[in-house]
Design brief:
The chain has 568 residues and is mainly α. It is 52% helix and 8% strand. It has helices at residues 10-19, 41-44, 96-100, 107-121, 144-158, 168-180, 184-197, 203-212, 216-228, 237-240, 244-251, 260-274, 281-287, 298-315, 321-325, 329-340, 342-354, 361-364, 370-376, 379-479, and strands at 48-55, 89-94, 137-143, 482-484, 488-490, 493-494, 502-503, 508-510, 546-549, 555-557, 559-561.
Protein backbone atom coordinates (compact mmCIF):
# COMPACT_ATOMS: atom_id res chain seq x y z
CA UNK A 1 0.00 0.00 0.00
CA UNK A 2 1.26 3.53 -0.73
CA UNK A 3 3.03 5.13 2.18
CA UNK A 4 1.11 8.44 1.90
CA UNK A 5 -2.16 6.72 2.95
CA UNK A 6 -1.72 5.51 6.56
CA UNK A 7 -3.26 2.17 7.39
CA UNK A 8 -6.41 2.52 9.48
CA UNK A 9 -6.31 0.85 12.89
CA UNK A 10 -9.73 -0.78 12.92
CA UNK A 11 -9.38 -2.28 16.40
CA UNK A 12 -8.61 1.16 17.76
CA UNK A 13 -11.67 2.57 16.00
CA UNK A 14 -13.88 -0.05 17.67
CA UNK A 15 -12.36 0.20 21.11
CA UNK A 16 -12.49 3.98 21.14
CA UNK A 17 -16.09 3.84 20.02
CA UNK A 18 -16.97 1.47 22.83
CA UNK A 19 -15.13 3.37 25.52
CA UNK A 20 -16.84 6.62 24.60
CA UNK A 21 -20.24 5.31 25.74
CA UNK A 22 -22.16 7.30 28.35
CA UNK A 23 -23.76 5.27 31.07
CA UNK A 24 -27.49 4.61 30.76
CA UNK A 25 -30.06 4.11 33.48
CA UNK A 26 -31.16 0.94 31.71
CA UNK A 27 -30.02 -2.45 32.94
CA UNK A 28 -28.28 -3.18 29.64
CA UNK A 29 -26.81 0.31 29.52
CA UNK A 30 -28.54 1.19 26.23
CA UNK A 31 -31.21 3.81 25.58
CA UNK A 32 -34.44 3.04 23.64
CA UNK A 33 -33.15 4.37 20.34
CA UNK A 34 -34.29 3.12 16.94
CA UNK A 35 -31.64 1.07 15.19
CA UNK A 36 -29.63 3.33 12.89
CA UNK A 37 -26.09 3.86 11.68
CA UNK A 38 -25.69 7.08 13.69
CA UNK A 39 -25.52 5.20 17.01
CA UNK A 40 -22.14 4.14 18.35
CA UNK A 41 -21.04 0.60 17.77
CA UNK A 42 -21.62 -0.49 21.37
CA UNK A 43 -25.23 0.63 21.59
CA UNK A 44 -26.21 -0.55 18.11
CA UNK A 45 -24.21 -3.82 18.14
CA UNK A 46 -22.57 -2.73 14.92
CA UNK A 47 -20.92 -5.58 13.05
CA UNK A 48 -19.51 -3.71 10.06
CA UNK A 49 -17.54 -0.50 9.52
CA UNK A 50 -17.25 1.75 6.49
CA UNK A 51 -14.27 4.12 6.38
CA UNK A 52 -14.31 6.90 3.76
CA UNK A 53 -11.12 8.78 2.89
CA UNK A 54 -12.13 12.19 1.52
CA UNK A 55 -10.48 13.40 -1.70
CA UNK A 56 -10.67 16.85 -3.23
CA UNK A 57 -11.92 17.46 -6.74
CA UNK A 58 -9.27 16.71 -9.31
CA UNK A 59 -8.70 15.00 -12.59
CA UNK A 60 -9.75 11.66 -11.09
CA UNK A 61 -12.98 10.47 -9.55
CA UNK A 62 -11.67 7.58 -7.38
CA UNK A 63 -13.62 4.36 -7.65
CA UNK A 64 -11.56 1.80 -5.80
CA UNK A 65 -10.96 0.38 -2.34
CA UNK A 66 -7.87 1.09 -0.32
CA UNK A 67 -7.10 -2.62 -0.18
CA UNK A 68 -6.85 -2.77 -3.97
CA UNK A 69 -5.03 0.51 -4.45
CA UNK A 70 -1.50 -0.79 -4.88
CA UNK A 71 -1.83 -0.51 -8.64
CA UNK A 72 -3.07 3.09 -8.46
CA UNK A 73 -0.92 6.19 -8.21
CA UNK A 74 -2.37 7.68 -5.03
CA UNK A 75 -0.03 10.65 -5.30
CA UNK A 76 -2.29 11.97 -8.09
CA UNK A 77 -5.12 12.34 -5.58
CA UNK A 78 -5.43 15.37 -3.32
CA UNK A 79 -6.71 14.02 -0.02
CA UNK A 80 -8.57 16.26 2.40
CA UNK A 81 -6.36 16.94 5.42
CA UNK A 82 -7.70 17.78 8.85
CA UNK A 83 -6.52 20.56 11.14
CA UNK A 84 -4.12 18.12 12.85
CA UNK A 85 -2.45 17.26 9.56
CA UNK A 86 -3.97 13.79 9.31
CA UNK A 87 -6.16 12.59 6.45
CA UNK A 88 -9.85 13.36 6.83
CA UNK A 89 -11.83 10.15 7.31
CA UNK A 90 -15.55 9.44 7.82
CA UNK A 91 -16.29 6.31 9.87
CA UNK A 92 -19.72 4.66 9.82
CA UNK A 93 -20.63 1.84 12.26
CA UNK A 94 -23.27 -0.04 10.34
CA UNK A 95 -25.03 -3.41 10.32
CA UNK A 96 -24.56 -6.10 7.75
CA UNK A 97 -28.19 -7.10 7.67
CA UNK A 98 -29.31 -3.53 6.85
CA UNK A 99 -26.81 -3.25 4.02
CA UNK A 100 -27.09 -6.73 2.54
CA UNK A 101 -30.77 -7.69 2.93
CA UNK A 102 -33.97 -6.17 1.47
CA UNK A 103 -35.05 -4.27 -1.61
CA UNK A 104 -32.74 -1.36 -0.77
CA UNK A 105 -29.66 -3.53 -0.20
CA UNK A 106 -26.20 -2.98 -1.64
CA UNK A 107 -25.46 -5.95 -3.86
CA UNK A 108 -21.72 -5.16 -3.82
CA UNK A 109 -21.37 -4.98 -0.03
CA UNK A 110 -23.77 -7.91 0.41
CA UNK A 111 -21.65 -10.12 -1.81
CA UNK A 112 -18.43 -9.10 -0.07
CA UNK A 113 -19.95 -9.66 3.39
CA UNK A 114 -21.22 -13.12 2.49
CA UNK A 115 -17.95 -14.16 0.88
CA UNK A 116 -16.04 -12.96 3.95
CA UNK A 117 -18.41 -14.79 6.29
CA UNK A 118 -17.99 -18.03 4.36
CA UNK A 119 -14.22 -17.68 4.37
CA UNK A 120 -13.90 -16.95 8.08
CA UNK A 121 -16.51 -19.32 9.45
CA UNK A 122 -15.71 -22.18 7.21
CA UNK A 123 -19.31 -22.99 6.39
CA UNK A 124 -20.84 -22.37 9.78
CA UNK A 125 -17.82 -22.27 12.14
CA UNK A 126 -17.37 -18.71 13.41
CA UNK A 127 -14.06 -17.17 14.39
CA UNK A 128 -13.83 -15.64 17.85
CA UNK A 129 -12.19 -12.50 16.54
CA UNK A 130 -14.22 -12.04 13.32
CA UNK A 131 -15.79 -8.76 14.48
CA UNK A 132 -12.43 -7.12 14.98
CA UNK A 133 -10.78 -8.36 11.80
CA UNK A 134 -10.28 -6.41 8.58
CA UNK A 135 -12.94 -8.44 6.79
CA UNK A 136 -15.65 -6.50 8.64
CA UNK A 137 -14.34 -3.17 7.44
CA UNK A 138 -14.83 -1.53 4.05
CA UNK A 139 -12.36 1.32 3.44
CA UNK A 140 -12.63 3.44 0.33
CA UNK A 141 -11.69 6.77 -1.25
CA UNK A 142 -14.36 9.25 -2.38
CA UNK A 143 -14.63 12.79 -3.64
CA UNK A 144 -16.12 15.12 -1.08
CA UNK A 145 -19.48 15.31 -2.88
CA UNK A 146 -19.91 11.53 -2.74
CA UNK A 147 -18.63 11.43 0.83
CA UNK A 148 -21.25 14.02 1.81
CA UNK A 149 -23.96 11.86 0.20
CA UNK A 150 -23.02 8.69 2.12
CA UNK A 151 -25.45 9.56 4.93
CA UNK A 152 -28.38 9.81 2.48
CA UNK A 153 -27.37 6.46 0.94
CA UNK A 154 -27.24 4.74 4.34
CA UNK A 155 -30.60 6.25 5.35
CA UNK A 156 -32.03 4.80 2.13
CA UNK A 157 -30.74 1.32 3.06
CA UNK A 158 -31.92 1.54 6.69
CA UNK A 159 -35.36 3.14 6.13
CA UNK A 160 -37.04 1.81 2.97
CA UNK A 161 -40.35 3.53 3.86
CA UNK A 162 -38.88 7.03 4.18
CA UNK A 163 -38.48 9.41 1.23
CA UNK A 164 -35.02 9.70 -0.23
CA UNK A 165 -33.12 12.80 0.94
CA UNK A 166 -32.11 13.99 -2.54
CA UNK A 167 -31.65 17.45 -4.03
CA UNK A 168 -29.78 19.03 -6.93
CA UNK A 169 -26.43 19.20 -5.11
CA UNK A 170 -26.30 15.51 -4.14
CA UNK A 171 -28.30 13.93 -6.98
CA UNK A 172 -25.32 13.01 -9.20
CA UNK A 173 -23.20 11.75 -6.24
CA UNK A 174 -26.14 9.51 -5.24
CA UNK A 175 -26.30 8.13 -8.79
CA UNK A 176 -22.56 7.47 -8.51
CA UNK A 177 -22.92 5.75 -5.11
CA UNK A 178 -25.88 3.69 -6.37
CA UNK A 179 -23.84 2.48 -9.33
CA UNK A 180 -20.70 1.91 -7.30
CA UNK A 181 -22.42 -0.09 -4.55
CA UNK A 182 -24.98 -1.59 -6.91
CA UNK A 183 -28.14 -0.39 -5.12
CA UNK A 184 -30.73 -0.80 -7.87
CA UNK A 185 -33.69 0.96 -6.20
CA UNK A 186 -31.49 3.94 -5.24
CA UNK A 187 -30.20 4.16 -8.79
CA UNK A 188 -33.75 4.26 -10.18
CA UNK A 189 -34.83 7.05 -7.81
CA UNK A 190 -31.68 9.13 -8.25
CA UNK A 191 -31.76 8.88 -12.05
CA UNK A 192 -35.47 9.75 -12.10
CA UNK A 193 -34.72 12.85 -10.01
CA UNK A 194 -31.99 13.93 -12.41
CA UNK A 195 -34.27 13.40 -15.42
CA UNK A 196 -36.99 15.53 -13.83
CA UNK A 197 -34.84 18.38 -12.52
CA UNK A 198 -32.15 18.74 -15.18
CA UNK A 199 -32.78 22.14 -16.82
CA UNK A 200 -30.92 25.12 -18.25
CA UNK A 201 -30.44 26.85 -14.89
CA UNK A 202 -28.61 23.91 -13.29
CA UNK A 203 -27.33 22.01 -16.31
CA UNK A 204 -23.71 23.15 -15.77
CA UNK A 205 -23.83 21.85 -12.18
CA UNK A 206 -25.08 18.44 -13.34
CA UNK A 207 -22.54 18.53 -16.16
CA UNK A 208 -19.56 19.06 -13.84
CA UNK A 209 -20.68 16.43 -11.35
CA UNK A 210 -21.37 13.89 -14.08
CA UNK A 211 -17.94 14.61 -15.58
CA UNK A 212 -16.21 14.11 -12.23
CA UNK A 213 -18.00 10.84 -11.54
CA UNK A 214 -17.77 9.61 -15.15
CA UNK A 215 -21.54 9.26 -15.59
CA UNK A 216 -21.66 9.50 -19.36
CA UNK A 217 -25.44 9.37 -19.81
CA UNK A 218 -26.12 12.29 -17.43
CA UNK A 219 -23.10 14.11 -18.85
CA UNK A 220 -24.43 13.82 -22.41
CA UNK A 221 -27.88 15.11 -21.46
CA UNK A 222 -26.44 17.98 -19.41
CA UNK A 223 -24.20 18.98 -22.33
CA UNK A 224 -27.15 19.01 -24.74
CA UNK A 225 -29.30 21.10 -22.37
CA UNK A 226 -26.45 23.57 -21.82
CA UNK A 227 -25.86 23.85 -25.58
CA UNK A 228 -29.57 24.29 -26.34
CA UNK A 229 -29.76 27.31 -23.99
CA UNK A 230 -26.30 28.79 -24.50
CA UNK A 231 -27.63 31.99 -26.09
CA UNK A 232 -29.87 32.57 -23.05
CA UNK A 233 -26.99 32.75 -20.59
CA UNK A 234 -26.03 36.01 -18.96
CA UNK A 235 -23.14 34.74 -16.85
CA UNK A 236 -20.60 32.74 -18.84
CA UNK A 237 -18.06 32.29 -16.02
CA UNK A 238 -19.26 28.71 -15.29
CA UNK A 239 -18.77 27.91 -18.98
CA UNK A 240 -15.26 29.39 -18.98
CA UNK A 241 -14.34 27.15 -16.01
CA UNK A 242 -15.22 23.93 -17.83
CA UNK A 243 -12.44 21.62 -19.00
CA UNK A 244 -11.64 21.95 -22.74
CA UNK A 245 -13.15 18.56 -23.52
CA UNK A 246 -16.52 19.57 -22.06
CA UNK A 247 -16.48 22.96 -23.78
CA UNK A 248 -15.74 21.26 -27.10
CA UNK A 249 -18.65 18.86 -26.62
CA UNK A 250 -21.00 21.80 -25.89
CA UNK A 251 -19.92 23.70 -29.02
CA UNK A 252 -20.19 20.56 -31.17
CA UNK A 253 -23.53 19.46 -29.70
CA UNK A 254 -26.25 19.00 -32.36
CA UNK A 255 -28.62 20.82 -29.98
CA UNK A 256 -26.52 24.00 -29.91
CA UNK A 257 -28.62 27.17 -30.06
CA UNK A 258 -26.44 30.26 -30.20
CA UNK A 259 -25.99 33.18 -32.58
CA UNK A 260 -22.81 32.70 -34.62
CA UNK A 261 -21.31 36.08 -33.71
CA UNK A 262 -22.09 35.59 -30.03
CA UNK A 263 -20.55 32.11 -30.21
CA UNK A 264 -17.35 33.63 -31.65
CA UNK A 265 -17.14 35.91 -28.60
CA UNK A 266 -17.62 32.96 -26.23
CA UNK A 267 -15.12 30.75 -28.06
CA UNK A 268 -12.42 33.43 -28.14
CA UNK A 269 -12.93 34.33 -24.48
CA UNK A 270 -12.72 30.64 -23.49
CA UNK A 271 -9.75 29.74 -25.67
CA UNK A 272 -7.80 33.00 -25.85
CA UNK A 273 -8.39 34.42 -22.36
CA UNK A 274 -9.08 31.49 -20.03
CA UNK A 275 -7.49 28.33 -21.47
CA UNK A 276 -4.85 29.55 -23.92
CA UNK A 277 -2.26 27.10 -22.57
CA UNK A 278 -4.55 24.08 -22.99
CA UNK A 279 -5.75 24.70 -26.57
CA UNK A 280 -4.01 23.38 -29.67
CA UNK A 281 -4.58 24.24 -33.30
CA UNK A 282 -6.64 21.15 -34.15
CA UNK A 283 -8.94 21.74 -31.19
CA UNK A 284 -9.42 25.38 -32.24
CA UNK A 285 -10.12 24.44 -35.84
CA UNK A 286 -12.70 21.90 -34.76
CA UNK A 287 -14.77 24.32 -32.64
CA UNK A 288 -14.56 27.15 -35.21
CA UNK A 289 -15.74 25.25 -38.27
CA UNK A 290 -17.76 27.24 -40.77
CA UNK A 291 -20.90 25.16 -40.24
CA UNK A 292 -20.76 25.96 -36.52
CA UNK A 293 -19.56 29.56 -36.70
CA UNK A 294 -20.22 31.03 -40.16
CA UNK A 295 -20.13 34.63 -38.90
CA UNK A 296 -17.60 36.25 -36.56
CA UNK A 297 -18.09 39.27 -34.38
CA UNK A 298 -16.02 42.20 -35.64
CA UNK A 299 -14.74 42.92 -32.12
CA UNK A 300 -12.83 39.62 -31.91
CA UNK A 301 -12.19 38.72 -35.56
CA UNK A 302 -8.63 40.10 -35.52
CA UNK A 303 -7.97 38.58 -32.08
CA UNK A 304 -9.19 35.17 -33.28
CA UNK A 305 -6.89 35.41 -36.31
CA UNK A 306 -3.91 36.33 -34.09
CA UNK A 307 -4.67 33.50 -31.66
CA UNK A 308 -5.06 31.06 -34.55
CA UNK A 309 -1.74 32.10 -36.10
CA UNK A 310 -0.02 31.71 -32.73
CA UNK A 311 -1.44 28.18 -32.40
CA UNK A 312 -0.12 27.31 -35.86
CA UNK A 313 3.36 28.54 -34.92
CA UNK A 314 3.16 26.66 -31.62
CA UNK A 315 2.50 23.52 -33.62
CA UNK A 316 5.33 24.24 -36.12
CA UNK A 317 7.36 27.36 -35.55
CA UNK A 318 9.23 26.96 -38.88
CA UNK A 319 6.11 26.65 -41.04
CA UNK A 320 5.28 28.91 -43.97
CA UNK A 321 2.24 30.61 -42.54
CA UNK A 322 0.82 31.92 -45.80
CA UNK A 323 0.91 28.46 -47.37
CA UNK A 324 -0.98 27.02 -44.39
CA UNK A 325 -3.54 29.82 -44.47
CA UNK A 326 -4.04 29.43 -48.22
CA UNK A 327 -7.73 28.47 -48.58
CA UNK A 328 -8.12 28.17 -44.80
CA UNK A 329 -11.76 28.77 -43.85
CA UNK A 330 -11.19 30.35 -40.44
CA UNK A 331 -8.52 32.82 -41.60
CA UNK A 332 -10.62 33.75 -44.65
CA UNK A 333 -13.63 34.47 -42.41
CA UNK A 334 -11.50 36.54 -40.03
CA UNK A 335 -9.93 38.58 -42.83
CA UNK A 336 -13.31 39.10 -44.50
CA UNK A 337 -14.85 40.47 -41.29
CA UNK A 338 -11.80 42.64 -40.52
CA UNK A 339 -11.74 44.07 -44.05
CA UNK A 340 -15.46 44.81 -43.97
CA UNK A 341 -14.90 46.79 -40.79
CA UNK A 342 -11.60 48.24 -42.00
CA UNK A 343 -12.29 51.71 -40.65
CA UNK A 344 -13.01 50.64 -37.06
CA UNK A 345 -10.71 47.62 -36.87
CA UNK A 346 -7.61 48.70 -38.83
CA UNK A 347 -7.63 52.29 -40.07
CA UNK A 348 -8.58 54.19 -36.92
CA UNK A 349 -6.43 52.05 -34.55
CA UNK A 350 -3.40 52.52 -36.83
CA UNK A 351 -3.98 56.26 -37.09
CA UNK A 352 -4.32 56.58 -33.33
CA UNK A 353 -1.30 54.38 -32.78
CA UNK A 354 0.92 56.57 -35.00
CA UNK A 355 0.10 59.59 -32.84
CA UNK A 356 1.86 58.06 -29.84
CA UNK A 357 5.47 58.87 -29.26
CA UNK A 358 8.01 56.16 -30.04
CA UNK A 359 9.11 56.33 -26.43
CA UNK A 360 5.93 54.63 -25.21
CA UNK A 361 6.40 51.04 -26.45
CA UNK A 362 4.38 49.61 -23.57
CA UNK A 363 1.29 51.41 -24.80
CA UNK A 364 2.01 50.30 -28.35
CA UNK A 365 2.61 46.64 -27.48
CA UNK A 366 -0.54 46.16 -25.41
CA UNK A 367 -2.19 42.94 -26.61
CA UNK A 368 -5.62 44.52 -26.33
CA UNK A 369 -4.83 47.25 -28.86
CA UNK A 370 -6.03 46.40 -32.35
CA UNK A 371 -3.09 48.21 -33.94
CA UNK A 372 -0.65 46.18 -31.86
CA UNK A 373 -2.46 42.97 -32.74
CA UNK A 374 -2.26 43.79 -36.42
CA UNK A 375 1.46 44.64 -36.22
CA UNK A 376 2.15 41.42 -34.31
CA UNK A 377 0.95 39.32 -37.24
CA UNK A 378 3.42 38.01 -39.82
CA UNK A 379 4.31 40.79 -42.30
CA UNK A 380 2.86 38.96 -45.30
CA UNK A 381 -0.40 38.43 -43.45
CA UNK A 382 -0.42 42.10 -42.46
CA UNK A 383 -0.06 43.01 -46.13
CA UNK A 384 -2.89 40.68 -47.12
CA UNK A 385 -5.17 42.25 -44.52
CA UNK A 386 -4.21 45.77 -45.60
CA UNK A 387 -4.80 44.88 -49.26
CA UNK A 388 -8.20 43.45 -48.39
CA UNK A 389 -8.99 46.55 -46.36
CA UNK A 390 -7.91 48.83 -49.21
CA UNK A 391 -10.02 46.88 -51.69
CA UNK A 392 -12.95 46.94 -49.30
CA UNK A 393 -12.42 50.66 -48.71
CA UNK A 394 -12.36 51.25 -52.48
CA UNK A 395 -15.51 49.18 -52.88
CA UNK A 396 -17.12 51.19 -50.09
CA UNK A 397 -16.01 54.42 -51.73
CA UNK A 398 -17.24 53.31 -55.16
CA UNK A 399 -20.47 52.16 -53.62
CA UNK A 400 -20.93 55.47 -51.83
CA UNK A 401 -20.06 57.36 -55.02
CA UNK A 402 -22.53 55.26 -56.97
CA UNK A 403 -25.10 55.78 -54.28
CA UNK A 404 -24.45 59.53 -54.30
CA UNK A 405 -24.67 59.67 -58.08
CA UNK A 406 -27.78 57.56 -58.01
CA UNK A 407 -29.20 59.78 -55.32
CA UNK A 408 -28.27 62.88 -57.35
CA UNK A 409 -30.01 61.49 -60.43
CA UNK A 410 -32.93 60.36 -58.35
CA UNK A 411 -33.08 63.75 -56.67
CA UNK A 412 -33.07 65.51 -60.03
CA UNK A 413 -35.72 63.21 -61.41
CA UNK A 414 -37.68 63.56 -58.21
CA UNK A 415 -37.26 67.34 -58.33
CA UNK A 416 -38.44 67.47 -61.96
CA UNK A 417 -41.33 65.18 -61.16
CA UNK A 418 -42.11 67.26 -58.09
CA UNK A 419 -41.97 70.47 -60.13
CA UNK A 420 -44.19 69.01 -62.80
CA UNK A 421 -46.52 67.64 -60.21
CA UNK A 422 -46.47 70.96 -58.37
CA UNK A 423 -47.23 72.81 -61.63
CA UNK A 424 -50.09 70.43 -62.26
CA UNK A 425 -51.36 70.99 -58.74
CA UNK A 426 -51.08 74.78 -59.21
CA UNK A 427 -53.00 74.53 -62.51
CA UNK A 428 -55.67 72.42 -60.90
CA UNK A 429 -55.92 74.90 -58.03
CA UNK A 430 -56.14 77.81 -60.50
CA UNK A 431 -58.90 76.06 -62.48
CA UNK A 432 -60.65 75.25 -59.26
CA UNK A 433 -60.39 78.89 -58.18
CA UNK A 434 -61.83 80.14 -61.50
CA UNK A 435 -64.60 77.59 -61.32
CA UNK A 436 -65.30 78.55 -57.71
CA UNK A 437 -65.40 82.28 -58.57
CA UNK A 438 -67.71 81.63 -61.52
CA UNK A 439 -69.96 79.53 -59.38
CA UNK A 440 -69.96 82.16 -56.65
CA UNK A 441 -70.81 84.88 -59.24
CA UNK A 442 -73.70 82.81 -60.50
CA UNK A 443 -74.92 82.30 -56.96
CA UNK A 444 -74.63 86.09 -56.31
CA UNK A 445 -76.67 86.89 -59.44
CA UNK A 446 -79.20 84.30 -58.46
CA UNK A 447 -79.43 85.75 -54.94
CA UNK A 448 -79.75 89.29 -56.40
CA UNK A 449 -82.58 88.15 -58.68
CA UNK A 450 -84.32 86.48 -55.79
CA UNK A 451 -84.00 89.70 -53.77
CA UNK A 452 -85.56 91.73 -56.64
CA UNK A 453 -88.38 89.21 -56.90
CA UNK A 454 -88.90 89.43 -53.17
CA UNK A 455 -89.00 93.23 -53.36
CA UNK A 456 -91.63 93.10 -56.13
CA UNK A 457 -93.56 90.54 -54.17
CA UNK A 458 -93.39 92.81 -51.12
CA UNK A 459 -94.78 95.73 -53.16
CA UNK A 460 -97.60 93.53 -54.41
CA UNK A 461 -98.34 92.43 -50.83
CA UNK A 462 -98.30 96.07 -49.69
CA UNK A 463 -100.79 97.05 -52.43
CA UNK A 464 -102.96 94.09 -51.66
CA UNK A 465 -102.78 94.90 -47.97
CA UNK A 466 -103.82 98.45 -48.68
CA UNK A 467 -106.76 97.22 -50.78
CA UNK A 468 -107.84 94.78 -48.13
CA UNK A 469 -107.47 97.44 -45.47
CA UNK A 470 -109.83 99.68 -47.46
CA UNK A 471 -112.24 96.77 -47.98
CA UNK A 472 -112.07 96.03 -44.28
CA UNK A 473 -112.97 99.61 -43.50
CA UNK A 474 -115.90 99.34 -45.91
CA UNK A 475 -116.96 96.10 -44.21
CA UNK A 476 -116.73 97.76 -40.82
CA UNK A 477 -118.81 100.66 -42.08
CA UNK A 478 -121.28 98.29 -43.69
CA UNK A 479 -121.56 96.24 -40.51
CA UNK A 480 -122.57 99.32 -38.59
CA UNK A 481 -125.77 99.40 -40.73
CA UNK A 482 -127.08 96.15 -39.33
CA UNK A 483 -129.43 96.40 -36.38
CA UNK A 484 -130.79 93.73 -34.16
CA UNK A 485 -134.48 93.16 -34.16
CA UNK A 486 -135.99 93.66 -30.64
CA UNK A 487 -137.88 90.86 -28.95
CA UNK A 488 -141.22 92.78 -29.09
CA UNK A 489 -142.20 94.58 -32.26
CA UNK A 490 -145.14 95.30 -34.51
CA UNK A 491 -144.49 93.66 -37.82
CA UNK A 492 -147.97 93.92 -39.25
CA UNK A 493 -149.53 91.69 -41.85
CA UNK A 494 -149.17 92.37 -45.54
CA UNK A 495 -152.48 92.51 -47.25
CA UNK A 496 -152.97 89.86 -49.82
CA UNK A 497 -155.03 92.16 -51.93
CA UNK A 498 -152.61 95.02 -51.81
CA UNK A 499 -149.09 94.37 -50.66
CA UNK A 500 -148.66 98.01 -49.83
CA UNK A 501 -151.24 97.73 -47.05
CA UNK A 502 -150.07 96.37 -43.65
CA UNK A 503 -152.41 95.48 -40.88
CA UNK A 504 -150.32 95.82 -37.73
CA UNK A 505 -153.10 94.77 -35.40
CA UNK A 506 -152.98 91.23 -36.51
CA UNK A 507 -149.26 90.50 -36.82
CA UNK A 508 -147.79 91.98 -33.73
CA UNK A 509 -145.27 89.40 -32.59
CA UNK A 510 -143.31 88.67 -29.45
CA UNK A 511 -140.68 86.04 -28.82
CA UNK A 512 -142.23 85.36 -25.42
CA UNK A 513 -145.15 82.88 -25.80
CA UNK A 514 -146.96 84.57 -22.93
CA UNK A 515 -147.23 87.66 -25.09
CA UNK A 516 -149.11 85.88 -27.92
CA UNK A 517 -152.70 86.36 -28.87
CA UNK A 518 -155.40 85.96 -27.38
CA UNK A 519 -153.83 86.72 -24.01
CA UNK A 520 -152.28 89.75 -25.52
CA UNK A 521 -152.82 91.60 -28.59
CA UNK A 522 -149.70 90.31 -30.24
CA UNK A 523 -150.10 87.55 -32.71
CA UNK A 524 -148.39 84.19 -32.59
CA UNK A 525 -147.36 83.91 -36.23
CA UNK A 526 -143.76 84.80 -37.10
CA UNK A 527 -143.37 87.84 -39.26
CA UNK A 528 -142.94 87.56 -42.98
CA UNK A 529 -141.07 90.85 -43.44
CA UNK A 530 -138.60 93.01 -41.62
CA UNK A 531 -140.24 96.01 -39.86
CA UNK A 532 -139.47 99.50 -40.71
CA UNK A 533 -138.12 101.78 -38.10
CA UNK A 534 -141.19 103.46 -36.51
CA UNK A 535 -141.77 105.64 -33.50
CA UNK A 536 -142.27 102.76 -31.02
CA UNK A 537 -138.91 101.21 -31.91
CA UNK A 538 -137.19 103.67 -29.68
CA UNK A 539 -139.17 102.38 -26.70
CA UNK A 540 -138.23 98.73 -27.36
CA UNK A 541 -134.52 99.11 -28.22
CA UNK A 542 -133.33 97.75 -24.95
CA UNK A 543 -135.22 94.48 -25.18
CA UNK A 544 -133.52 91.20 -25.82
CA UNK A 545 -133.61 90.45 -29.52
CA UNK A 546 -134.40 86.73 -29.69
CA UNK A 547 -137.37 86.81 -32.01
CA UNK A 548 -137.14 83.83 -34.31
CA UNK A 549 -138.02 80.29 -33.37
CA UNK A 550 -136.38 77.81 -35.70
CA UNK A 551 -138.99 75.14 -34.83
CA UNK A 552 -136.49 73.02 -32.91
CA UNK A 553 -136.68 74.82 -29.60
CA UNK A 554 -133.99 77.43 -30.25
CA UNK A 555 -134.50 81.20 -30.48
CA UNK A 556 -132.18 82.90 -32.91
CA UNK A 557 -131.29 86.56 -33.18
CA UNK A 558 -132.59 88.46 -36.15
CA UNK A 559 -130.89 91.45 -37.76
CA UNK A 560 -132.05 93.90 -40.32
CA UNK A 561 -130.19 96.24 -42.60
CA UNK A 562 -131.09 99.84 -42.12
CA UNK A 563 -129.44 101.32 -45.22
CA UNK A 564 -128.30 104.87 -45.41
CA UNK A 565 -129.71 107.25 -42.83
CA UNK A 566 -131.60 108.94 -45.62
CA UNK A 567 -133.54 105.76 -46.35
CA UNK A 568 -134.80 105.23 -42.81
Amino acid sequence: MASNVPRTNYAALRSSSSVSQTKSSRYDGVEDDELNWRLDSYASLSDFTIVVNRAMRGILAPDFDVEGSNSVNLSAIDFVVGTDGSLSKDVYHVHKVMLAVGNNRSELLGRRIREAENTVRGWGRSSPDDHSSDINVHETIMLEGAADAMGAMLDFCYYPDRPLDIFVENAVPLVYLAQRYKIRSLLEKAEAFVDKHLESTNAVHFLLDAYLYKLDDILRRAIDVTAAHLDERVDFDPIYKLPPDLFRRIVLSPDLECDSEMLSLVVYSYCGEHHSEEIDVEYFREITKCKIMPELDAKVALMILKFYVDLIFDDDEDCEIMEILQGDSLSDRCITVVSKHWQDEICEPLMIDTEWDESTPSRRSSPHELASIHRSLPPKLQNVILEKCLLEAKDDLDTEQTVLESLDVENKVELAESSEKFGGVIGELRDELVHTKSKQQEEVEDYRKQIEDLKLKALEFEAELEQRTKALEEYKKELTRFRRVPGIHNFGEVSKADSSLIDKTKCTYSANPDHHYPNHRRGSRPPTQMPRLVAEFGNLGKENGYVYNDGHGQLLPVFYYQGDLGEL
